[in-house]
Amino acid sequence: MSTISPLPKDKDITDPNYKPLPGHLGNLTLTQQHALDTLKRQLEDEDHFVPERMDDATLLRFLRACKFDVAKTKAMLLSAEQWRKQFGVEDIVKNFVFTEKKEVDKYFPQYYHKTDKDGGPVYIQRLGKIDFKALSAITTQDRQLRRYVLEYEEFLTERLPACSKAAGHPVESSCCIMDLAGVGLSSFYPVKKYVSQTTGIGRDCYPECIGKFYIINAPWGFSTIWSIVKQWLDEATVVKVDIVSSGEIKKKLLSQIPAENLPAEFGGACRCIGGCSLSNAGPWNL
């Protein structure tokens, strides 16, 4: 049985139909609320609590990833904090500029674009367009990873707050589209290292940020690729993955994303000037 745990007073909820999902603020069981209180108290007592990064919503993301096991959650959270120091996340946020973004987009489009029907940002990756030879002449894999981390940080500090305000209720996750058109076994292995690194960072340091996950244009032999990829994902993400058959792509995506927000190449009606992948269109860029 759930208990209506209070929502933060700073959340401006104007959507009268908003109902928090189980395990989220406003819909916690007594056991889950106790786990949240215990985790926060332990972090504070042990001098690990970082107020600007450990609000209740964030702590709950980590708790959900660990099925509300406080010991496992604390270990995961502290490991993520250690990684932040080692990878230099604060410096990336303050100083990193991905100046080669426009050129990189030609050979590996990956971008946030508007919102889905739940109000969450839509994130699109087109793995089949990756050309590592061309990319290596423009950027480095280290810079691409830094760009990936910066995108996650901006997702949490800019995109989600803007989406929440626009939706009138807390928005805590994205809707992901992974387009595998052009990907085969031979072209997958060159991208294997990069994909494993990025999925590992997302799984371990930014958990529970994916709401919906659609894989489209899966190639022949995809079962082999999927058997590898799903090892890099946490269990909660794997069950969210929807591998969409070729004849159902437009219907499936439009059931979750308004036509005006979905790029035309995926069956939508959006044709941003200069291309959707570089538009940065969404509530965060008004």
The value of Rg in angstroms is 19 Å
Oligomer description: single chain
* Classification by helices and strands: alpha/beta
Percent helix, as a range, is: 40-55%
**Which consecutive residue ranges, at least 5 long each, have pLDDT under 50?**
none
List the secondary-structure elements in sequence, H or E: HHHHHEEHHEHEHHEH
Q: What portion of the residues fall into strands of 2 or more residues?
A: 5-15%
What is the helix tally? 11
Number of strands: 5
Mean pLDDT: 91
Shape call: globular
Distance between termini? 41 Å
Task: Give the strand line-up of the largest sheet.
Answer: 1-2-3-4-5
Describe the fold and architecture:
Helix content is 46%, strand content 10%. It contains 11 helices and 5 strands; from the N terminus they run αααααββααβαβααβα. The chain has helices at 30-45, 56-65, 70-87, 89-95, 101-107, 132-136, 141-167, 185-205, 222-229, 235-238, 249-256, and strands at residues 110-115, 121-126, 174-179, 210-216, 241-243. It has a 5-stranded mixed beta sheet. β1 (110-115) and β2 form a beta hairpin. The N and C termini lie far apart (41 Å). The mean pLDDT is 91.
In short:
This protein has 286 residues and is α/β, with parallel strands linked by helices.
Helices, strands, pairings?
Blueprint: H1 30-45, H2 56-65, H3 70-87, H4 89-95, H5 101-107, E1 110-115, E2 121-126, H6 132-136, H7 141-167, E3 174-179, H8 185-205, E4 210-216, H9 222-229, H10 235-238, E5 241-243, H11 249-256
Parallel strand pairs: 2-3, 3-4, 4-5
Antiparallel strand pairs: 1-2
